[in-house]
Amino acid sequence: MQIVGPYLLFIGDATDALSIKMARGVADFRPELCIGEMQVEGCTVTTGLPQLTIAEGVAKGAKTFVLGFANSGGVLDPKWHPYILEALAAGMDVVSGLHEKMSDVPELAQAAAANKVKLLDIRHPDGEFKTGTAVPRKGKRLLTIGTDCSVGKMYTSLSLEKAMKDQNMDVDFRATGQCGILIAGQGVAIDCVISDFISGATESLSPDNNEQHWDIIEGQGSLSHPAFAGVSMGLLHGSQPDALVICHALNRHHMRGLPHTAFPSLQETIALNLQAAKLTNPNVKVAGIAVNTSSVSVEEGRAICQQISDELSLPCVDPVRDGCDAIVERLTQEF
Amino acid sequence: MQIVGPYLLFIGDATDALSIKMARGVADFRPELCIGEMQVEGCTVTTGLPQLTIAEGVAKGAKTFVLGFANSGGVLDPKWHPYILEALAAGMDVVSGLHEKMSDVPELAQAAAANKVKLLDIRHPDGEFKTGTAVPRKGKRLLTIGTDCSVGKMYTSLSLEKAMKDQNMDVDFRATGQCGILIAGQGVAIDCVISDFISGATESLSPDNNEQHWDIIEGQGSLSHPAFAGVSMGLLHGSQPDALVICHALNRHHMRGLPHTAFPSLQETIALNLQAAKLTNPNVKVAGIAVNTSSVSVEEGRAICQQISDELSLPCVDPVRDGCDAIVERLTQEF
């Protein structure tokens, strides 16, 4: 699966900034991929991109129409069908990260076939995966792992990729969630893979490469999250990471969505992940810590990062506020 | 999903005893569920059950026609369609544990609908699962876990259930693989669940129950197997086990299918699984060790079990040769 840019981002009638996370992610990280945004009446949020109709987007070169909004059930509301049909008729592929598949709607499937364009339901991996083999692969791999879900693993991965590219390093971001896939144009929504194939699908995501090449693999979930640790474990084993970057958000007191659960310390998170990662790469090491400090002031955030860095003898940054150069410096020196 | 007994076991033209593991499993563990066996020309193996045609099976009360064979690709060969159609026309449900779904073959789906019977593709879970919550559930749970895949977790689980029933304990076997599902008449093929829902599906498999009730949950894979540890981890967290029984097979030197991998010790397996299990049940303990000693003599096997028992201060049995009474005794005393 390859998503062809540039994109026209459709955000419908969204009124919640969080619900257009997918559109904002790609607008922030790949502005060169985004021709414009399209809203309908009632929409109160924006990515800040220019407003375009489908016809205008196509005229400006858009190749893919992106449903850039989400909702709690992942439902594809039939009210969006006319917009999808219009985009298909105009010759664009259409991307959706919703749970309900466009390709399961006969009218949409027929229109895509008739116009020789694609419906890309990126939450539903279309590959035939194999079970993992744990055979070592060439090249270097970094996996972002989390103390919890939603602590900034994708943002950290992309920030690392950017810092490494700035230093002319040979690097690829490997996406494992729908936002990341839209940004990378390819990838595997790993939590949507049949569980037998978690590590095998991850192996296929970062294949053999040049000795000096880095794959920056987007982590998912957390080994300490009772709902998602299975995904995190398979992703860790399949990635065979040389380097782990631990992602954390300040002021969490329980695992996301589960108020009755305990939150692990950074030390516990490091120990647990190194232990598990050694099964497929005995030389794995931690390269640094990335902390989302947005809940405190810049000064307080910097002081906390410095304290963590001193305690763990590792570079510690807020990728949003400070970038990932300090971690990349460690990578170039010690990996 | 509920598989209705009794069964007529169809083993086709199988020539390899391992390929009819599903038929043999149910014939061994639930003989009262099995009316008979049906072969076609070329078949050289048997479960030992009486040979019956579909008409004879129905006349004797068979409610479900079971495809009791497997093949490496999980392919549903079209040569079996006529037999499935005959069974459907005779009013039987049909069960398959193959990867290719019967319900994806229009002719079979139509025949099932026309005869108001079911096609049960038990390798494909049909439930709508939720993500795990880790909310503690009432009742007691035992999970069989393995040093490796295919070390006897299902056999041990069923042997434990039998020993507990013999003592009039309130117990249910909870199946997580297709052989187990056929034996139990229900369950979830956990390695076929979308990875986001591994622990959630496991939670639904062993719901709240009476304080003295035991669920014996069939384990899958191994935390030390790089292909399947994600499944094992989600199953462990979702099970919230009070008791673990460690299953092991003698004379393994690497993880199944992966000659380049190391094999864990029993001590390592215990430590790794207790650590992970404590996330959802801090009171988890090991109740005993089950060893497949079939590769050595009975005397040698008993000596090895005794040695393991002495070293670990836990009951250690070969469930096939000795049954699981020693482990059940520990359960009744200490859990």
Number of domains of chain A: 2
* SS content category of chain A: alpha/beta
Poorly predicted runs of chain A: none
Architecture per CATH nomenclature, i.e. the level-2 architecture of the largest domain in chain A: 3-Layer(aba) Sandwich
Mean pLDDT of chain A: 96
Instruction: Tell me which oligomeric state these chains represent.
Output: homodimer
Query: In what order do the strands lie side by side in the largest sheet of chain A?
Result: 7-8-6-9-10-11
InterPro entries (chains A, B): DgcN-like, DgcN-like_C, DgcN-like_N, P-loop_NTPase
Organism (chains A, B): Thalassotalea euphylliae
Pfam families (chains A, B): DUF1611, DUF1611_N
Protein name (chains A, B): DUF1611 domain-containing protein
Question: Would you mind describing this structure in some detail?
Answer:
Two copies of one chain form a homodimer. Chain A contains twelve helices and eleven strands. The longest helix of chain A is centred in the last third of the chain and has 15 residues. The mean pLDDT of chain A is 96. In chain A, the strands form two sheets. In chain A, strands 7-8-6-9-10-11 form a six-stranded parallel sheet, sandwiched between helices. With 335 residues, chain A is an alpha/beta fold. The interface between A and B is medium-sized, with 35 and 35 residues.
Question: How are the secondary structure elements laid out?
Answer:
Two copies of one chain form a homodimer.
Chain A: E1 7-12, H1 21-29, E2 34-39, H2 54-59, E3 64-67, H3 81-89, E4 93-96, H4 106-114, E5 119-121, E6 140-146, H5 153-166, E7 171-174, H6 178-184, H7 198-205, E8 214-217, H8 229-239, E9 243-249, H9 266-277, E10 285-292, H10 298-312, E11 316-317, H11 319-322, H12 325-334
Parallel strand pairs in A: 1-2, 1-3, 3-4, 4-5, 6-8, 6-9, 7-8, 9-10, 10-11
Helix pairs in contact in A: 1-6, 7-8
Domain D-glutamate N-acetyltransferase-like N-terminal (chains A, B): 41-125
Pfam families (chains A, B): DUF1611, DUF1611_N
Domain D-glutamate N-acetyltransferase-like C-terminal (chains A, B): 131-328
